[in-house]
C-alpha cells in the first residue's frame, strides 16, 4: 500500500499557467476561437 500525503499536489485544483491566462484574456484569440467553432457548427448543420 502506498502512503498518501493529505496536502499533496493531487488534492488541489490545477492552476493555469501564465500562457493559459494570457490566452483566456486575449480578445483576438477569443475571436478566432469563436469563428472556428461557428464554422465547425455551420458545416455540421449543413451536412445534416
Concise account of the structure shown:
The protein is mainly α and 48 residues long.
What series of H and E elements makes up the topology?
A: HH
CA-based gyration radius? 19 Å
Q: Quick one: how many beta strands?
A: 0
Q: Give the rounded overall mean pLDDT.
A: 88
Helix amount, in percent? 55-70%
Major β-sheet annotation: none
Outline type = elongated
Structural class, please?
mainly alpha
Query: What low-confidence regions span 5 or more consecutive residues with pLDDT below 50?
Result: none
Query: How far apart are the termini?
Result: 53 Å
The portion of residues forming beta strands comes to: under 5%
Q: How would you describe the overall organization of this protein?
A:
The structure is a single chain. The chain is an all-alpha fold. It has a domain at 17-47. The protein contains two helices and no strands. It has helices at residues 18-25, 27-47. The longest helix has 21 residues, at 27-47. The radius of gyration is 19 Å and the shape is elongated.
What's the arrangement of secondary structure elements?
Elements: H1 18-25, H2 27-47
Keywords, separated by commas or semicolons:
48 residues; mainly alpha; 0% strand; elongated
Amino acid at each position: 500500500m502506498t502512503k498518501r500525503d493529505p496536502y499533496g499536489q493531487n488534492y488541489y485544483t490545477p492552476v493555469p499557467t501564465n500562457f493559459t491566462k494570457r490566452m483566456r484574456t486575449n480578445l483576438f484569440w477569443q475571436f478566432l476561437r469563436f469563428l472556428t467553432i461557428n464554422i465547425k457548427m455551420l458545416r455540421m448543420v449543413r451536412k445534416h
